[in-house]
Amino acid sequence: MLKTIVFFVFFVVFSFLSLVCLSNSEIKFISPIGAVARSAIPGWGQVYTKHFFKGVIVFLSIGALGAGGLEADAIYRDYYNNKYAPAVLSDSDKANFYFDKSNQYFKLSRFLLYAAGGIWAYSIIDAYIDAHIYNAEQQIKMLKIDDEKLQQLKQKEGISYLPYNNCIDFKSGFLISSFTPLNHFNVNISEE
After folding, report:
1. Angle ∠(173,175,177) on CA atoms, nearest 5
2. What is the per-residue pLDDT across 57-66, written as a single tens digit (0 to 9) for each?
3. How far apart are CA 42 and CA 36, in angstroms?
4. Residue-wise over 13-49: b if at least 16 C-beta within 10 A, else e?
5. pTM value > 0.70
6. Residue 183, CB half-sphere, CA atoms under 13 Å: how many?
7. pLDDT < 70 stretches in the chain
8. Which among 110, 112, 111, 104 is positioned nearest to 80, based on CA atoms?
9. Coil, strand, or helix at residue 25?
10. Smallest Cα–Cα separation from 38: which of 47, 27, 28, 29?
11. Is residue 49 within 8 Å of residue 35, measured between CB atoms?
């Protein structure tokens, strides 16, 4: 129990430290493989990809399901070793009752442990995908900054047309056009 509390305290402290250290407006990319590696500790991959609430939910759910599964496994082993086995050896009428009871706890422990493992596997995949989404959002921010710089250059130099001006729709993030035909520059193209 003490290990769980210490681990939870470190998780919360590192979550807030990463929030404070990475809250500046500087554009940084994160490694999807780093997110997967950090997901070895439940929830840390989500915190790394800036999904703090999701990280806490993953951590708490895996912790609760894992603890419940281990507790049910301990009860199953107690029923099986200390009640069912002696009842079978003494040919007691309660042997079937103890077997059914231990079997119920066995099934419950496996369900809870497999559920915790499933959420853990999902969190690893989620951290990998969230890292890619975060990097794509950072690239869109970089394109917005570049577009603003082009607009400033256009105004500063008195240029009335830039060939790649306003080629990105920032609301949808889609490239509108990436090629400007030559006739926009009043170039005479003749076939001779």
Report:
1. 155
2. 999 999 999 9
3. 10
4. eebeebeeeeeeeeeeebebeebbebbebbbbbbbbb
5. no
6. 2
7. 1-25, 159-192
8. 104
9. coil
10. 47
11. yes
